[in-house]
Amino acid sequence: MMITSWTHSNPRRRYFSYGMKEGKRDEKGCNYFEWYDLIMCRRSTALIPGLLRSMNAKDATIEKLRAWERKLVSATVLLALLLLFVCWCKKPEIRMG
Fold this sequence. Notes:
Keywords: Membrane, Transmembrane, Transmembrane helix. This is Zinc finger GRF-type domain-containing protein. It contains one helix and three strands; from the N terminus they run βββα. The longest helix is centred in the C-terminal third of the chain and has 48 residues, at 42-89. It is an alpha+beta fold. The chain has two domains: 1-40, no CATH class; 55-90.
């Protein structure tokens, strides 16, 4: 089974783990693994965790902004409906004379 390492020394480096069943990573296998990806240079190993944290923080900010946007759209629609209702109620009656 192919697994992705998220350790600081091997960020995002994939490897094969033998003796584990799909979806059951807690079970102990034979503890044999084989790297799928090549070793990364030190600079990549130092940069990737920071980039991932930055990307995750930006994703969280985007989700918060999308939630805020949904609230603003809902409030705008409610205000528009309220305005239409008030205008409809205040409509002067036209009398034929």
